[in-house]
Amino acid sequence: MSIIADYVRRIRRFPGNARLFLAFSFLFGFSFAVYSLFFNLYIIARGYNPAFLGALVALPMGMNLVFALPVGLFGNRIGYKRGLIIGAAAMTVSIVGIALSPGAIGLIAFSVLNGIGNSILWVMGVPFMAANSRIEERTHLFSMQFSLNTFSGFFGFLIGGSLPIMFAHVLRCGSGAPLAYQATLFTSAGVMAIAVIPLALISEPPRPVHTEVLRFRAAFAQPTLIIKLLIPEIVIGFGAGLLVPYFNVFFKQQFAVSDGILGTLFAGQAVGIGIATLAGPLLAARWGKVRAVAITQFASIPFLLMLGYSPLFVVAVVGFLARAALMNMGGPLYSAFTMEKVGAGRRAAVNGLLTMSWSGSFAIANWISGRLQGTVGFSPLFLFTAVAYGVGAGLVYLFFARSRASEA
Length: 408
Prior knowledge:
Elements lengths: L2 H10 L3 H30 L4 H24 L1 H4 L1 H21 L3 H28 L3 H26 L2 H9 L6 H17 L1 H5 L11 H8 L3 H21 L3 H9 L3 H29 L1 H21 L3 H17 L1 H11 L5 H27 L5 H23 L7
């Protein structure tokens, strides 16, 4: 059987719950793409400075740091289905709240709620997929979910890029006016609300309930392994937090692109990530999961530097697209690897720890980046991120990828 035929066969064997989660991921990806594309620009259009924007961007990840482990520990008691529905509902309410908030206090409060909802979805989603897939198809499910999420982001970015212009015409305001961005955020919230429907159709069997104390102890049952899993996440999360949430601001400031072109750029990025992620299982079959992660992360660094330091828009775009594809290709592989290294009863708690580590460093970097952008600009941030990516990828290779046996 050819590699491609085997790939297709494994996808066809996904159970019903997994297919419903893929449908949710598609809708969520569309909604989040529209939201993330214009959230920063909406805040700036309302007259807030980069330091306040940095704090708002950091808040959701800060909430991941606070809530990820409790969500992981109580995951069995809540149930994956109920937890995912609560998370999606919280995200919907938070986006509406951000669009309607008259002042800074409201923006802060609903950014906190956004982070709580995102934390629940992030922590619950990975063990849910692990619980609803067999080991022989798990890598394909993780890659397919991530790919669908990003492919739907293509439509979100492409369609979303034209929404402020359309709403500006309808509402008789400028395309860069807060009112146009506000209406765009309402569109994002509407799609997020629709995404709850496939979650409601999930059939979840009763789960055994254990005490949270026992699950907390179980999460740390293999401290050396857990520490090795956490450290690369912390380093890479910090590097990503310095730049990734601000690429839209970077293109606006560096090349003065329009909202439409910005949407097209991010749509192209989503396609690149989606295609690259689908290729992830093929690389994993050839090199092993974590070796594929380390190699692709290393390969993304030259393109990151190309994006940050080229004065030519076309060259920067090439760097932007290639960096995103290579850096994100290994994410689902690493997630699948971590879930296979721990027992089924520990997955939610361990994924909570992983989410905390990545989100905590990401949030700190968001805040630092917001402060630095107002003083030294973007230039040094690209160098800092490149170093962080290199160190993180090196640690993944050092800890896990030196032999295929480590992936057993």
